[in-house]
Amino acid sequence: MEIELFEIKDHLSRHRPFSDLPPAILDGLVSHIEVAYFRAKSTILTLGQDNYYLYFIRSGAVEVSRSSGELYNRFGEGNCFGQFALMRSKRVRYPVIAIEDTLVYLIPNAQFQNLCEQVDDFADYMEESHGARLRQAVSKVREDGYNPLLASPVRKLIRREIVTSSPSASVQQAAEIMTRARVSSLLIMEEAPLVGSQGAIAGLITDRDLRARALSKGLSLSTPVRDIMSREVICCRSEAYAFEAMLTMMRHNLHHLPVLHQGKPIGVITAADIVQYESHGSVYLVSEIFKQTDVVGLKAISEKIKPSFVHMVNEDANSHMIGSALSFIGSSISQRLLHLGETKLGEPPIPYCYLSLGPMARQEQLMVTDQDNAFILDDQFIPQEHDAYFADLAAFVSDGLAACSYSYCDGEIMGTNPRWRQPLKAWQEMFNNWIDDPDPEALLHSSIFFDLEGIYGQLKLAETLKRLIREKAPQSRKFLAHIARNALMRNPPLGFFRHFVLEPNGEHIKTFNLKERGTAPISDLVRVHALACGSRSLNTLERLADVNETDLLPQGVGSDLNDALEFISMVRIRHQAKQIDTGIEPDNDVEPTRLSSFERRHLRNAFQIVDKSQSFLRYRYTASDGMRAIR
Q1: 68 domain-assigned
Q2: Which of 59, 468, 471, 619 is 20 to 30 A from 436 via CA?
Q3: pTM of whole model > 0.90?
């Protein structure tokens, strides 16, 4: 071995993780190492560039920054940097400059990946250094590459105590309350039926309402606020993300948004609380959707979804943010199509509610998706008089969605299918039959209907069905056992010895489907637990939070599933973003050899979690009277 290589080996052997490498592996490594020198104040890595080396500092010091320019860390002799890019997309997220004259050893990506594959301790060390174990890798709030506030829960935006009044308060009294509290809105609460209890929200007034609805019209200052308040108050949940609140405010042209925690108001956020922060392109897409006057315009807008998706991925938005944004966009397109359809066909003959189903209802929609929708019609429905209108409306919406790249559902779970265009009483009968007298084959094709959300029309019709599900499902052991069995039909692609199980032939040979074999099994099994505990949530992560408040799962299992879902989702999301970047139509079929060692290692961990959770599901729910009690 040449003298220079002896010196490199000697120095590396003094520092972890190289000091822990077997001698033979270290000998093989040093022959591939390159040496580079950087003068003080020179740039080593720039934001967004591709990096193909692990940098080991032989002497000198460097400064590592976040993409925002904020200082992340300073490293000196014996430290490494650059591994984060190697373990992910090769794209630099942490720019590096030399703050002293610095000599570095460059370890090529091929040798880095081989070390991660061959030596678990080396991989663990590299992953830990950037908090990238499975749990750390799926942290919900990343601090690099995008505004962290957009990933903050809405409750963190609440700046002041909630200010309320009763409907009988006068305009003058309301103005006095708002002035004293220095707020621009006042939440109007119904009189509570019991002393010390809190009534429901009756309405909302703002300083604009006082000017436009009272003062400018010459109303008496003694006029009760019930006469000028907005009665249809749109709210958001405290656990929603700030960017979701922004979308809601833009969709409804709101300046004030009450925040609810467990159904009770805890504050009001204003547009001023969030508009100062940069938003994702999805926000602006939604505002443009509702300006379109025909399907051609919507189709043009839909072509911007892919760039918006890639933007969010490149900004390191997490899967919940991306799924929520794309679901919101899809819902908005559906809503606009329904409005355009009503304009074309005339006013609907009876009230109705349009349902989104599956991933869109769960706020988990990604780039590869089809249509899943249905209609609940008012019980006044008379087929001979009313069905032709709704058949035409369903066709208009479905064709419009197809034009906007939401493909038709192969299983015909769309409002164009008369079976899924029924009056409320027919839907109630179907759900009662599914729950009270479950048929395995029928349930196999109806699980998607237990993920339903009303997005247009008389939303109370959807809420009636959701309430029926919450009340009946936990009481039917037989139903839970059948739906649990169906949830076990999609298994993670992991065989003996933790080898990936790949498609043996066909179009997607040597791949596995990250939706069908990864995220969908988690959504399926979490749905069972959520139905068992009467959860009100639809999103899988939110359902897990509800389930974790019960004793349905062993301690720690819920957190593990949360992390597994996020990691699998992010690999799936990045896979689709890379395909879009290269002009390939996105799909869910991943070839393991194209993944980094980091991704392969943690996918195995995630799939093992899913496998164990499915085994527990099989144990937890049985059709016999001996099924474990659900508490």
Answers
A1: yes
A2: 619
A3: no
